[in-house]
Design goal:
Oligomer: homodimer
Shape of chain A: globular
Structural class of chain A: alpha/beta
Number of helices of chain A: 27
Strand content of chain A: 15-25%
Distance between the termini of chain A: 39 Å
């Protein structure tokens, strides 16, 4: 099994997952195949929806003599006529629905191996939300016991060990931690079907969080039994990689159509609110009049078209960096989901999510409502503003919101203020909250689209952060040039460019980074076209380049040397194992398996110093992963090396 | 031309619109056909998207000798090979884009007639948003002058007279009022393309409101040049019936894909977030690699699939009564649209919208965020609660939110309170605001889905209405049965059933209706299955039936007689012309053209008294339209008659 991160947003990721039967892109959906009754065959699915992986049930196969014999003889791929990856379930859900089943835990693992399943599943004990703590604890213990035995006999087969624990956070945590210690490959989050059936989305999100937070991040996570697109975006954002759907066919039998916003009964629909090939070929009345069998198949096809489109939409959102927007816009479709999303406002969840949030994105941040201000990126910039922004004095001038970029719109005002007293801090009271004027081109301050008037909740949050940020300060609101009379004169200290470079460096690297990098004769080269800062030299050395797209720095090797010298281990470091030193010296990137350790403050897309185990600087690069990921993944790039020291420039 | 309302939600409607070339369902989208260059032919559109009506440009046809000759000889339907309805534009937009054009106003109307256009358009004067008031006024005057001349020569052709007035409310109003007086058939709202191109959605919504409010409601309204699905739902909700789209092809040339949430550049897409037949046949990479011409065509097809799906989604939402939910969920996709939606919070807009809002809907009301509490239905129930709810004393007991129905959940508590003092008012402080316990089964109190915790804005609005409602009252919060100690004892007055019937009747009919209808010996028949009130008899006469679906009354003929006697003209009346009396006496429904007048307080789906010009009661029925609509429509049902007086029961 190979599992490698290719792109990311929130705590979600696009990965390549490789089994004996090929490579699958995640997040992905496995349609459930009933080997007894294939309304749509896996082959058709591949053709119509691009299905790469399906799930079928080894217990059902084993119980039926004919199926069993064929599967044992020709393999499960031949049985269901599919040459892509196949996961098999073990009968656990049958034991939940029908009570006792007739198979032993190790027996069903052996059987899955024998029929050539790509991903087999242990026979875990389904934990229902109505279990008492003691019952749930027993399920977890038994599941873990079976998992430990099963991994020993898995051989070549990828083995999935579901996480149980009902709705008890500490049981989910314990089960996740224990499973992460054994040689398991694949983590289904089990026992969640009743939560989804009852729309208990708050419980569902808590279960995902309390599981995912404690799992080895280098293994695929599967939200077992989740087939409704409504919850795909949030589940992906919290780190789920796989879904499986029997919903498409179950709902079809019940004449229910799946949409991204929920399901609708065919009888309640007057016009098909969808453009899938099914809904583009039939009117609502025509579908209603189809013969039962054909109707079921067409609805099932519609359900899969919609479900796979949502998967594609999520992957596209990850690539674009707009997964949070997708989650928030989806959540307003359902009051229970909207309610559940408020769990992400809890401090400990924000702290966890912030670790995965990339430093910068391809797309501007869009406001969608009161939830927007609770995104990890806002949590991060507020935290950094408090910890890292160095006010030049106690005096703050507050400019009202304006057209962006603020520093251009207010250029005359800024000049006049600094002329009188360049130690005054200028901040803009914008819809995204406080923006120190030096940071107005930095992501996400410039790269955000907020309406002129935000909601009361956001307004209150902005005010409360404003008060926190300007606490103990002297705040003057700008009301035109006569405000200058209120400013005490002072001698000139900094140029605005220096202030900007310094403030951005502090926010991006660490407090004091700006001062350190500019401690010498500074030369600034600007773009002739845009007038924006491009390259910064200090004492003739090229230390930084500013990116026009996000107003952040690319750290140059000479800048890296300065930061390496002035800020001690582990600040900004990714430490590589000795065996990798030569590769790095050759300019190769750092693969996760060669990472020894990493600054816990580094985030995906952060600039970093690549050092050896003795903290000798080897290169400068950009993180692809956070620390937890670097230390657990066996595949994939941890840091993209940009410039490396050779014997020449060492 | 025939234009008839078939279904409705918000101020939007599903209509049947009939031209010489057949019947078109509205809301609908007319793809723009360039007769010189049909990337997708109208015939293909009909097959692929079910296109019923297209728009093409008579000025372009007239200017090109070949096109002109063919159009004059064989007609425009033959020219573009389409047997459905065709609207033609006049060259106004060309004069806006390219300056002067070479055609006279009446000349182009004649030409459109001669080529057999189903809907011709006058040559109006395009009003841009940057016009001064004087310039805009001049455009309006000239447009009106041309409109008045043009209607005289239109003959059989349906004639469209665009409304101009830039962004000046009084000019839009004036233009709308004047155009409504002349013999025009079809109202395009003109001059809106620059508003949409710049995403000035607040201006756009103001323009629609300031136009639509003053137009004859019986004519189709066309948002001229609007082809982006993002604004379809709100435009329909404000009364627009037609859109036209050149966006599908313009964006296609620019490699941009239309989605319900906005457009995306093909280059920025890694996976196609859509399930339309195009996006189901190609991957993003495959489309990117198509030859230019084929790529344009495939993107144009995608754009139309998505646009028509949105039209179908809107119509379906109207049928289901969920158009507000659709608008609100769409608006969070775009911060400018979200901002614009706040215009609907303005009192005068709420007042206008409330007139069109149906009394009851098929679907529960879903909370989507802070905008939900500003829907017309909430405005209405709050107004009615203040005006019509008759407290039985100054004492209010407030129960906290619970599982619905509240009266079932709190049945023990209610019994105990009433036992001690049945004059106490019981209200529930729920997420939808105050619910008097007597009204807990009435739409939308019971038929609403709100999360446990709403946003701060809604919370504040709830509190402020609570204070208004209980002003001058003695409010006691229920904190368990010991609250009973705080209630002064009093003799028993009403049964809970009587209270419920009375309160619902007051809310639904008018203040005092409950007392009037129950003034005698009351007998209540309940459903054996659900225990809910079904039929109410007073002195042996069947006066009311309660509907289980929305907790509202169906007014029986004997109840109607009582209300007719006790509440004077025009209360609850729909007055029919003498010529229709015999039809009504035969049990036929009331068609709009036979309505003489109507109680201005009646709303669509309201129960009403059908009377003759001398106020003799003829029948009881259910309104399909509001007063403005009844008085202006020539087609369609105004009131669905349910029970009529015959000589026997008169």
């Amino acid at each position: 099994m190979k599992f490698e991160i290719k792109d990311r947003d929130a705590a979600g990721r696009i990965c390549k997952f490789t089994t004996k039967h090929g490579t699958v892109t995640t997040p992905n959906l496995m349609p459930v195949i009933n080997p007894n009754k294939m309304i749509i065959t896996p082959k058709e699915m591949k053709k119509l929806f691009g299905t790469e992986i399906v799930i079928t049930n080894s217990y059902i196969i084993k119980k039926d003599e004919k199926l069993r014999e064929k599967a044992l003889k020709d393999g499960v791929h031949s049985l269901i006529d599919f040459d892509g990856s196949i996961m098999t379930d073990s009968g656990t859900f049958q034991s939940y629905v029908y009570g006792d089943i007739e198979v032993e835990p190790l027996e069903i693992v052996e059987f899955q191996k024998n029929i050539g399943s790509d991903i087999g599943t242990i026979l875990d004990v389904f934990g229902t939300p109505d279990q008492t703590y003691t019952e749930a604890e027993k399920s977890v213990k038994e599941t873990l016991k079976r998992a430990k035995k099963s991994v020993k006999i898995k051989e070549e087969m990828i083995l999935a060990t579901p996480i149980q624990g009902s709705i008890y956070p500490d049981l989910r945590k314990k089960c996740s931690e224990e499973v992460s210690k054994i040689n398991s490959d694949f983590y289904p989050i089990g026992g969640v079907v009743p939560l989804m059936e009852n729309q208990w989305y708050s419980d569902l999100i808590n279960v995902i969080l309390n599981t995912k937070k404690y799992l080895d991040p280098s293994k695929p996570v599967h939200l077992f039994g989740a087939g409704h697109p409504l919850i795909f975006p949030i589940a992906v954002a919290l780190g789920c990689d796989f879904f499986d759907s029997s919903a498409y066919i179950k709902y079809a039998y019940d004449n229910r159509l799946i949409f991204s916003w929920g399901t609708e009964k065919l009888d309640d629909i007057t016009e098909l609110p969808c453009c899938c090939p099914v809904c583009s070929s039939f009117t609502a009345d025509e579908i209603k009049k189809l013969q039962e069998k054909e109707k079921t198949k067409e609805i099932a096809k519609h359900n899969l078209y919609v479900s796979f489109a949502e998967i594609k939409r999520i992957r596209n959102a990850i690539s674009q960096g707009s997964l949070w927007e997708l989650i928030e816009t989806r959540s307003v479709e359902n009051p229970y989901l909207l309610q559940a999303l408020k769990l992400l406002r809890i401090e400990e969840n924000k702290i966890w999510l912030e670790k995965f949030e990339t430093i910068t994105k391809n797309k501007a941040m869009f406001y969608t409502g009161s939830q927007t201000f609770h995104r990890p990126i806002v949590y991060r910039i507020h935290k950094k503003l408090i910890e890292r922004f160095i006010p030049s004095s106690k005096d703050f001038i507050v400019f009202p919101e304006s057209v962006k970029p603020f520093s251009t719109f207010y250029s005359d005002e800024i000049k006049q203020v600094y002329k009188k007293n360049s130690k005054v801090n200028i901040i803009v009271d914008s819809s995204i909250g406080i923006v120190p004027i030096e940071l107005d081109e930095m992501y996400p301050f410039a790269q955000s689209v907020f309406p002129e008037f935000v909601d009361d909740e956001t307004e209150n949050a902005i005010t409360s952060f404003f008060n926190c940020f300007t606490k103990n300060s002297n705040v003057i609101c700008w009301i035109g040039f006569k405000t200058l009379d209120d400013i005490k004169p002072n001698e000139k200290v900094f140029s605005f460019d220096i202030r900007r470079i310094s403030a951005v460096a502090d926010m991006q690297f660490c407090k004091g980074a700006g001062y350190t990098l500019l401690d010498g004769k500074v030369e600034i080269v600007k773009s002739k076209k845009t007038g924006k800062i491009r390259n910064i030299y200090c004492d003739g050395k090229h230390v930084l380049s500013m990116r026009a797209s996000d107003g952040m720095f690319t750290l140059k090797l000479d800048g890296a040397k300065i930061l390496h010298k002035c800020f001690k281990d582990p600040h900004l470091r990714v430490k590589v194992k000795n065996v990798a030193i030569d590769f790095i010296k050759d300019g190769k990137s750092v693969f996760a398996k060669f990472v020894k350790d990493c600054d816990p403050e580094l985030r995906p897309m952060d600039e970093c110093l690549i050092v050896d185990e003795k903290d000798n600087l080897l290169a400068v690069g950009r993180c692809i992963m956070n620390r937890e990921e670097m230390l657990s993944f066996n595949y994939g790039m941890a840091v993209k090396t940009r410039e490396n020291l050779t014997s020449d420039n060492n």
